[in-house]
Fold this protein.
Amino acid sequence: MQETRQKIIDAAILIFNDDQSAPLEKVAEKAAVTRRTLHRYFKDRHELLTVCSKDIRKRCSEAMAAALDSSDRPLTQLEQLLYAALDCGAKYAFFHKLHGSEGHQHHGDNDDCTAYDTMHQRFLRLIMQLQDADMITRHVTPSWIHAFFTGVVNTALKADAMGEVAKQSQKQFAWFSFSKGIGV
């Protein structure tokens, strides 16, 4: 029962990451369940999106926090952050997309927004620390680097979905691209 629910959540994240307006039939099909089964677990799109957001927040926040806590070396932390985002995959991309989407009402009292803001602020502080230590370029802003980071994650996800990159090379290619792009 819990397994079916999680299958639906995971399928919804994948589908809605590509197209937030996709019909629920697509989610059900991706989860290999009927539309009726989907509605046994979630009464509507809003409830499904809310549960997806909570699932993403929990998983991505834990992975990103573990990456930041993985080392005392800031550059290693940044590399581990990229790998954690890649491991989160569509969850990271969708979480970022939800909080950056037009019409999103960002509220500090919302757990999802608080988690996103906390993660974003830790990332920016890490970038500033690396810039202050002259370990990465100062030619671009921390916000630009964050956008670039997200772009590299999205590129890796697309390459993976298209079967263009062997799974074992994905992280290597992503780190190479990202690190060179920020002057490491």
